[in-house]
Amino acid sequence: MLPAMPMFDMTGPELRAHRSDVTPPDDLQEFWAGTLAAARALGGTPTLTPTATPLRLIETFDVTFPGYAGDPIKAWLHRPAGASEALPCVVEYRGYGGGRGLAHEVVHWAVAGYAHFVMDSRGQGSDSTTGETPDPHPSTVAQPGVMTRGILDRDTYYYRRLFTDAVRAVDAVRALPQVDATRVAVAGASQGGGMSLAVAGLVPDLVGVMTDVPYLCDIRRATEIGDKEPYSEIVRYLKAHRDQVDQVFETLRYFDGAVLATLATAPALFSVALMDEICPPSTVYAAYNAYGGPKEIREYAYNEHEGGGPFHDLARLTWLAALLPAPSAPSSPS
Q1: I need a surface site. Which of 146, 218, 290, 292 has the fewest CB within 10 A?
Q2: For residue 230, what are the domain limits?
């Protein structure tokens, strides 16, 4: 195993005071309100199909729900087997390149007693975990990956579609009788952490937000101090398209977690790894310091992009249990 990278970003006091230079566009809220209203106006309801797995203590449903432009988005819904009441729910978003995975892969929130909704990421799912949701919308020229798809215009940018899917996932679970619509939290790491921040800014009545080593925060700084994927997709694009720098970063202002975090009001638990070269710690602190609701953060001083790993899994479970207790477990099926 290679040694961890030395700390390369700001010092501790500098990190904890860092704020992004990115400013919110004047029409940020109007842009997102219009985007979400258009998606919701298309209607549609989630469909659930029971799915058999070898996990006897969890029941799983294969879900399809309407996302951006009404596109069908896949997800898993997990619940403790035998649960009869509507449960509090954790909506989880996946990291860059990953999809919802197989039905048995990500189930720990259901084991803890919650409903657990795992959203597929359109056009992704060929990296760490598999996916099934295509992205049918065209793009201008772009680097491999999704970071620069449609990046010259906020209306065509890939993350407009993905963030809308993420908001519509919350809408979908709130329409399910298996879920208590008043008790929904969101969670995710890396890209999923950035999506959690976006949803926190765009959905006003979440119960909690868990965002771990979040990606898509203080994006311009991330491209300037690091050389790791996926931010390097933007770097390579601009290396070729030297005349589009201002246009690209104007688009990204509408999707930056350090901007959208200012709109959030729900309690949030952040995590940051101080040797993380993929999501540099200063970019995480930019979002944390901008976050509009109650917040706390856990630092992992000697970790890279894996962050707190199982240590932080325990921290999240404990934090959410204090904020949103799960019902008592039903009797085990015979």
Answers
A1: 292
A2: 15-322
